[in-house]
Amino acid sequence: MVLFLEINTEEMPPAHVKIALEQLGEKFKEELSAQNIYVGQVETYGTCRRLIVAGNFAPRQDDREEEIIGPPKAVAIGKDGSFSPAAKGFAKAQGVRVSELKVIKTERGEYLGLKKIEKGKPTRDILSEILPQIISSLSFPKMMRWGESSFRFSRPIKNILCLFGEKVLSFTIGGIRAGNLTRGHKIYSPKKIRVESFGEYRETLRKMKVVIDQEERRRMILNQMVQKLASLKATLHPDEDLLEHIIYDIEYPHVFLGSFPEEYLNLPLEVLSTAMREGQKLFSIVKEKKQIPFFLGVADAYQDSKSLIQKGNERVLKARLEDAKFFWEQDQKITLKDREKGLKKIVFQEKLGSYEDKAQRLKKIVAYFADKIEAKKEKKQVIQAAELSKVDLLTEMVREFPSLQGKVGGLYAKKEGYPAPVWKAVCEHYQPVSLDDESPSSLTGSILSIADKLDSIVGVVGIGIQVTGSKDPFGLRRNAHGVCKVVLERKLCFSFSRLLDKVLVVYGEKLRKPKDGIKSYCLDFFSNRLRYIFERQGYRYDLINAAVSVGIDNIYHSYLRLKALDSLKESPNFAPLILISKRVNNILRDQPLFRINTGLLAEKEERELHTTFSIIKNNVLPLISRGDFSQAQRIIFRIRSSIDKFFDNVLVMTDEKRLRRNRLALLQAISKLFIQVADYSQIVIEG
Amino acid sequence: MGLINQIPTVYKMSIQNLIMNLQKFWADQGCYLAQSYDLEVGAGTMTPDTFFRVLDKRPWKVAYVQPSRRPTDGRYGENPYRVQKHFQYQVIVKPSPSDIQQIYIESLIALGIDLQDHDIRFDEDDWEAPSIGAWGVGWQVLLDGLEITQFTYFQQAGGIDLFPVPVEITYGLERLEMFLEGKDNIFDLDWSDDVSYHDLRFFEEKEFSEYNFNHANVKKLKESFLWNEKEAWQLINNDLLLPAYDMCLKCSHFFNLLDSRGAISVTERVKMIAQIRGLANQIAQKYIARENSA
Description:
The complex is a heterodimer. Chain A is α+β, with helices and mostly antiparallel strands. Chain A has 26 helices and 18 strands. In chain A, helix 8 packs across helix 9 and helix 12 (376-388) packs across helix 16. Chain B has 2 domains: 4-212, Bira Bifunctional Protein, Domain 2 (BirA Bifunctional Protein, domain 2), CATH 3.30.930.10; 217-293, Methane Monooxygenase Hydroxylase, Chain G, domain 1. In chain B, strands 1, 2, 3, 4, 5, 6, 7, 8 and 9 form a 9-stranded mixed sheet that branches. At the A-B interface, strand 16, helix 9 and strand 18 of A face helix 3, strand 4, strand 6, strand 7 and helix 8 of B.
């Protein structure tokens, strides 16, 4: 039977619509399956003004068979086959005759009991209970109240339509009673109309200028765009995020082509496309990667017969471009160097001081960091870039288009004749803003990007702000992802904990929290972020644990460890090594550290193990410091036969104290070597 | 039909007619038409008709024009869009009616805009004034890409949940008129049949930009800020909340002037904002306590 739900609201942010549709789809499946109702196909559709679920559900709950266990058979039935008072009592309590009781075999023996069949309730009854719960359990990044109700949702709900099997399924939520009415497009068809079924609704709404299917709207937009672009022989400047936003932002798409005066083409593409995207949500059009004086817009309309929408947008865009051009020209009248002193007037964070303070810190951090990764050539340039990096916050252009921070500074630095490694570093140092964003293309940009993000993380943690669940007010996760992404892609090797020390020293007395605490929080935080990144790349969680839990002082090496584990996980030596490692760990648990005395190696097998181990160790250590964990592991595998023999023939926990301690010491040394490659004990062996 | 009902909506384009149309429309919705507040404020939302009245539990419907000063936005009358003083049309309705969005759309139709020929969008734009523990959820309304209105459901003020929920609709009169007249320069707008925006406001913009950026006396402004703050606290202690709030508004304006003079350091900025926040918060708290006990 078809359930059809439509929640009609005032304009929800597109991101909210996407989240709500995901939640609705999942919750319907989960909640109804949990109620023993067969769930068929569940489809979700949505626009900024409506959330729609259409699903197929069984008309009733499945019947449920229940076993009720009574007294043991031995107690319930006498030798002569008669029922004891215990059996009679049980039957009475269950409301059945004694003869209806059956013998039920359980793990604990035979019992007297009965099987009851619970008839399933009609799905309709269950839905009217569950639906209000599902709707009120939807969670949004920010929720609101309206009118005189304490009910919270993304935006005010105006109407709810709910049909089950083409009959109204009524319930009340937030003071709104579900019925069989809906409305069309807010301008063309604002009046309520009656709906009989989902199929009919879909077609009626199309006539009322609402296309409910987001994918259909996407196709309509793209088709219309292709048509408009054909005559220009040009392409869209790709912007997936913007398209994804617009798809949910409208109910009926009309793509319009507009133009702007050529004089604005002097502005860089970054500035032009940002001026178009922000506010008006227009798309740039390019030919051979250069902007041409046209744009595409998507209106929530079915036509623009008088071209008023197009002309209105052209007028607004022209004003924005005029502003941008003015800023572009005005800003360049003052050099970045001259602007610099203004940085002390902008607050980075109340307790962490101004952007001047931040720039000063960055200079010190990048100088240290460049040394550590042996970027000798780049050191001077990246210090210069650090000094300039935040100056564009003082420009009119960034004040108008905050998302252009960094880019604008870089473009101005380029115009002022700074060398490419300097201006590129300024341009790129906010990148990557997410795991899907591109990392800086320059080494200088990478160094500055890492320094800037670490400075923010350490500072914010240092004043006592922590990331918990959905709370991450300073985007620390995003920053940490950026750091990891750059390190991994650039294959940078350095001591992460010493870099943290450096940042802490540079902050000096500004941070109120104890330095050790800040550092261990940061290390922990980064371990978790690395785990997240690796999981996202599809690695097995236990391999990730094995690689990351041995410490992330060298972030890139953590990745190499993981890759080595991943590449060797099918090797026949892998499982035995893990078993050995677990066995060693078990024996060593709760033991204090002991030292090996070779003179005390009594048995042949322990002498052999010691020799093999020493050779392996000498070979493996240089490989580890080079990051060649695959080869290191292959060599470690060779310990297997010696260690097997050792365990077969030598009693570790012997009563003789000195021998016992010496054997434990040998195993401790082996374990210590293992752990430099990975914590094998974390790995789960399948089968 | 009586004569009164036959007064037609005025379609001739001018700011004056725009105001008259909005006044009539919102009066018909049951709003009391307030007069502009007589102190310098940064936005219509700062006047007592909004600030205090959204806090209590009583129904409230008000509409008014509010000249709004933002000294740092001054451009000496040389920028076609930016001015250090502009006019807002402010509407507060509490509790927010369930069809308020439709009513707003009708107000645009009443201004003579045929929405069938245009693209009207409600674009997520939440409002937040952390300095007074206030925030709301809403949109900027775009008409063919032009921002003409802020539309906000207030949620909290002074850190307290507002109940019932007020809705605030703030039309930018100059923006809206530029749309209606199809003009690209604010100074080309008509205020009335024969007075232009330029006639009325150009010299004011030029002179006030000069004053805001170059002449305002920094030392005296800082002193005035402190004196008004002190006075406000004294008034709060005497339960004179409306006069105290006036003092708070003055502090806010002096702060804006000092800001446009570039005379506020980082630490001063933080401190001064905290001082204004402290006042506004305390006034709101006391007002709520007084209303709830009444």
